[in-house]
């Protein structure tokens, strides 16, 4: 008896006993896909994906701002000095091996870029928050809402009083 015939025989025996494994598997698939769909459609996951995509596009703008606008001004202020050229050379003591360099200037340049980018993003978020505050008007108290709240309070007080009377009996 080959493997395929053996598996078919086992599946047939299981069906006769009342176990249908194919239906069990089919029932679990839609549930998993449903959960996955709910996960993907959550607002936070979608917002995160949009934020990452916009952040990627925004990186090019900020990099250009730093490299083409801010750094030339900073370079002019500090006398045309470029941090990225700073390095410490460790001589090679073994023949045939090139000396190692520690490029600490690149690290300093990256820190300066980070501080500039952080400051630019801070200014942008600050401006956006100010625009949002101006755009949203202050909530106006509605007379109809106030009346509805008073009615609800009166009904709740009546219910409370009735419950007190029932408990005294």
What order do the helices and strands come in, and which of them pair?
Blueprint: H1 3-16, H2 21-40, H3 43-77, E1 88-90, E2 100-102, H4 104-135, H5 143-168
Antiparallel strand pairs: 1-2
Helix pairs in contact: 3-4
What do you see in this structure?
The protein has a single domain (42-168), classed as Non-ribosomal Peptide Synthetase Peptidyl Carrier Protein, Chain A, CATH 1.10.1200. It contains 5 helices and 2 strands; from the N terminus they run αααββαα. The chain has helices at residues 3-16, 21-40, 43-77, 104-135, 143-168; strands spanning 88-90, 100-102. Strands 1-2 form a two-stranded antiparallel sheet. The protein is flat.
Task: Give a nutshell description of this structure.
The protein is mostly helical. 75% of the residues lie in helices and 4% in strands.
% residues in beta strands? under 5%
Mean pLDDT: 77
Low-confidence stretches: none
Distance between the termini: 83 Å
The helix content, as a percent range, equals over 70%
- What is the number of strand segments? 2
Helix/strand structural class: mainly alpha
Enter the CATH topology name. Non-ribosomal Peptide Synthetase Peptidyl Carrier Protein, Chain A
* CATH class wording: Mainly Alpha
What is the subunit arrangement here? single chain
Number of domains: 1
Shape: flat
Structural key phrases:
single chain; 169 residues; mainly alpha; Non-ribosomal Peptide Synthetase Peptidyl Carrier Protein, Chain A; two-stranded antiparallel ribbon; 2 strands; 75% helix; 4% strand; flat
């Amino acid at each position: 008896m080959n493997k395929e015939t053996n598996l078919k025989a086992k599946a047939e025996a299981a069906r006769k006993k009342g176990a249908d494994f194919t239906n069990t598997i089919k029932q679990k698939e839609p549930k998993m896909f449903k959960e996955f769909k709910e996960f993907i459609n959550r607002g936070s996951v979608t917002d995160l994906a949009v934020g990452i995509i916009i952040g990627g596009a925004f990186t090019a703008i900020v990099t250009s701002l730093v490299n083409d606008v801010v750094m030339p001004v900073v370079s002019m202020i500090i006398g045309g000095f470029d941090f990225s050229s700073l390095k410490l050379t460790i001589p090679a003591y073994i023949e045939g091996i090139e000396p190692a360099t520690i490029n600490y200037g690149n690290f300093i340049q990256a820190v300066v870029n980070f501080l500039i980018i952080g400051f630019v993003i801070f200014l942008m978020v600050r401006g956006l928050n100010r625009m949002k505050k101006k755009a949203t008007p202050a909530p106006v108290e509605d007379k109809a809402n106030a009346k509805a709240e008073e009615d609800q309070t009166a009904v709740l007080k009546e219910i409370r009083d009735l419950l007190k009377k029932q408990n005294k009996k």
